[in-house]
């Protein structure tokens, strides 16, 4: 176990606080069937990225806003399959309200019900897809999250699972803990954790199994 000091924490949502893998992939599979696009092309680029940016890359001829809204409606219908990452509820409930934020590529109407239905606390500070002009892997989302916390990005510790999100956090200047098996070598990537069951917080410090 290692102890890490941080003035604030920023969490991605999908794959980091909740396991929404099944819902996300089923929604994209239905969209691909609708347009005759190979699902493998989508899965290669969609994780951690705003849906409109994935659509724009693969099918720029479509009405991106309308397609993104259709996809969001499908994913919302599948939210019953979304579950909390083990230990996430206990960790979030132990944190002061002004100490942490969520920074997600999902919209507010899509994202917050995933927390609510899994009895995860709703963040006072959050950055969702609607709030930024450039999504992950651009640094804008994490720079905004740090600013809303009243902190400089290097003072924040980010929890992320996807390459696009990791790149976004690093480009913003944050330190990163990776949740899950993604590997990314960088001096500000502190390590990987499988979940939060062995993570604890006390007085601005985290105990982490890294």
UniProtKB/TrEMBL annotation:
InterPro entries the UniProt entry points to: HAD-like_sf, HAD-like_SPP, HAD-SF_hydro_IA, HAD_2, HAD_sf, PGP-like_dom2
Pfam family, any one: HAD_2
GO molecular function (one): sugar-phosphatase activity
Domain of life from the UniProt record: Bacteria
Stored PANTHER family: FRUCTOSE-1-PHOSPHATE PHOSPHATASE, GLYCEROL-1-PHOSPHATE PHOSPHOHYDROLASE 1-RELATED
Protein name, entry field: Uncharacterized protein
Organism: Zobellella denitrificans
Source taxonomy: Bacteria, Pseudomonadati, Pseudomonadota, Gammaproteobacteria, Aeromonadales
């Amino acid at each position: 176990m290692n102890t890490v000091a941080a003035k604030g924490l920023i969490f991605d949502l999908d794959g980091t606080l909740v396991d929404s893998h099944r819902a996300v992939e089923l929604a994209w599979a239905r969209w691909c069937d609708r347009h005759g696009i190979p699902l493998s092309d989508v899965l290669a680029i969609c994780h951690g990225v705003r849906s409109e940016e994935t659509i724009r890359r693969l099918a720029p001829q479509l009405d991106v806003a309308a397609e993104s809204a259709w996809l969001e409606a499908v994913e919302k219908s599948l939210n019953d399959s979304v579950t909390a990452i083990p230990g996430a509820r206990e960790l979030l409930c132990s944190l002061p309200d002004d100490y942490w934020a969520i920074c997600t590529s999902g919209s507010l109407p899509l994202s917050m019900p995933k927390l609510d239905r899994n009895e995860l606390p709703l963040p006072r500070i959050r950055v969702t897809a609607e709030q930024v002009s450039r999504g992950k892997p651009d640094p804008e989302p994490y720079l905004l999250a740090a600013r809303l916390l009243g902190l400089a990005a290097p003072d924040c510790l980010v929890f992320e699972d996807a390459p696009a999100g990791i790149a976004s956090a690093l480009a913003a200047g944050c330190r990163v803990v990776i949740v899950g098996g993604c590997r990314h070598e960088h001096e500000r990537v502190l390590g990987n954790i499988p979940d939060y069951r062995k993570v604890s917080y006390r007085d601005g410090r985290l105990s982490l199994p890294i």
